[in-house]
Amino acid sequence: MYRRRSRPTLRVLIEDLTSGWNGGGPKRLIDRGALHDLLPLSELSHPLIVKAIEAFGDDPQQDSPEGRIASASLYPSWEIKVAQWRGAVWRDESTSVHWLVAGGLAKGGHQDHEDFYKVVDRAHRSGAARAWLPTDQDVRLLKIETASAIDLGWQLDIQRMAYDALRGIATGGECEFDVPHPVPARIKPAERTLAHVTVVVESVREDDVSWDEVVVEIAPTGRWMTDPLTQQATLRLLVSLHAPEQDWDVGDGIFSAKVDPGRLQGRCDELAALVERGELAEPVPGASAHLAHRGHLAEKTINGGAVRALCGVFFVPRQDHASLPACPACAGALGQLPE
Amino acid sequence: MPTLHLPSDVPLDDVAAVEQFAQSASNPDMRDLLLSIANLLRDGVEVVTLNGVDTHALTPTEVARRLGMSRTHLYKLLDRGEIPFHRVGRDRRIAIEDVVAFEARRQCEKRMLAEAFAHRDQTHAAAVDAIADLL
């Protein structure tokens, strides 16, 4: 489940790798507490971290450590070297994850007090090196990093399900499928289905109008009703089927979007290319600047709530609307307001 | 029980005038209300009871058109019991007040959906946390 490749502990990032970064280094993000923005830790741009992944990557066959550090008596530590940098890597046998638990510089022909090997020797003799092992926070970051990868794979699966459904019914029809939980192995067998999904495409052809409607029912099962995973799956399904956010309607839990005839076949082609490349579809935000009541805007811009525009669309006000073209429907509605 | 008596046989030109006036309302909710009244006039409804037994019922085709959705979509809502209906022979009829109530729920859910799209980073973070908790 976890990637075995080397990753630094937070202590190494903060205390040991105080120089040598390509670019600004992680200090600013750590100081701000934005630890999640550092992930994946294995890919931070420091020569010792790069070397640690070379020594212990995802393939055990390619392992290339220098050897064991003899003075590391508390726990086995593998030595890595790059230029003047030296590091100690400890392998967690329970997860197979390799941790860069210490880093430093070789100094004064190893006679300097601050020489890496001297520091390791003293820390292992005194027992201080026990505190170098991964902390609860290190393990949590590992789990978050692993969970992000699982989530990405799961969202790609959902996108593929949306594609498989849509390509059969792009010109009309109905398709049903189940969205599984992203980590089914950790869930009781009876609860491994997150939601049952029904997608219908209906062509409306009347004298004066013609459009296609895609109707999506997402029925969460049991305890997943209000889970953030269900919300995540819902947004992924909607964006996969039709990317423009503001085209989506919802009433009594049934989602729908009215699209131009033939648009859904075009969407199938786009989805096929995304599935092929292993990329997720990006939602398309509203492409125009809407008009809404000034008082509502001020409040909602602060609290992040949605306001209803003159044209009827709901949108969450942001700061960048000035760059967007004005919504013609809103302008039309404004033009009919009394002076 | 509040009731609304509408004049009968209103000329279509007058209905259009009501619609035009409705379009000029700055408050979108008021505009919807006035447009609903214009629709009622157009459909020849004379009495609307806003709370209680229905006084006028619409066909599924009329309701689908008014709600801007396909009939398939409307039948799903009816079959799931979200919008009540009664039968006249084999056909279904839907009370106007139930259409109005659905429209109110829909506005509320559309607002929440817009917020869900805007806040999807938080949803993503919460989903990742939920997965991490299982590892």
For this entry, give a set of tags.
heterodimer; A: 339 residues; alpha+beta; 5-stranded mixed beta sheet; 5-stranded antiparallel beta sheet; 12 strands; 21% strand; B: 135 residues; mainly alpha; 3-stranded antiparallel beta sheet; two-stranded antiparallel sheet; extended
How would you summarize what this structure contains?
The complex is a heterodimer of chains A (339) and B (135). Chain A is α+β, with helices and mostly antiparallel strands and 339 residues long.
Task: Please characterize this protein's 3D structure.
The complex is a heterodimer of chains A (339) and B (135). Chain A is α+β, with helices and mostly antiparallel strands. Helices cover 34% and strands 21% of the residues of chain A. Chain A has helices at 10-16, 27-32, 47-55, 116-126, 136-169, 228-241, 263-277, 294-303, 328-335; strands at residues 7-8, 67-68, 78-82, 85-91, 98-105, 173-180, 193-205, 210-220, 248-251, 254-259, 307-308, 314-315. In chain A, the strands form 3 sheets. Chain A has a 5-stranded mixed β-sheet with strand order 1-5-4-3-2. In chain A, strands 6-7-8-10-9 form a 5-stranded antiparallel β-sheet, covered by helices on one side. Chain B is mostly helical and 135 residues long. Chain B contains 6 helices and 5 strands, in the order βααββααββαα. In chain B, the strands form 2 sheets. Chain B has a 3-stranded antiparallel β-sheet. In chain B, helix 1 (12-23) packs antiparallel against helix 2 (28-42) and helix 3 crosses helix 4 (71-79). The radius of gyration of chain B is 20 Å and the shape is extended. Classes of the chains: A alpha+beta (339), B mainly alpha (135).
Largest interface: A-B, 57 and 48 residues
| Count of distinct strands of chain B | 5
Gyration radius of chain B, to the nearest Å? 20 Å
Structural class of chain A: alpha+beta
Structural shape of chain B: extended
Specify the number of helices of chain B. Answer: 6
Order of helices and strands of chain A: EHHHEEEEHHEEEHEEHHEEH
Widest sheet, order of strands of chain A: 1-5-4-3-2
| Class from helix and strand fractions of chain B | mainly alpha
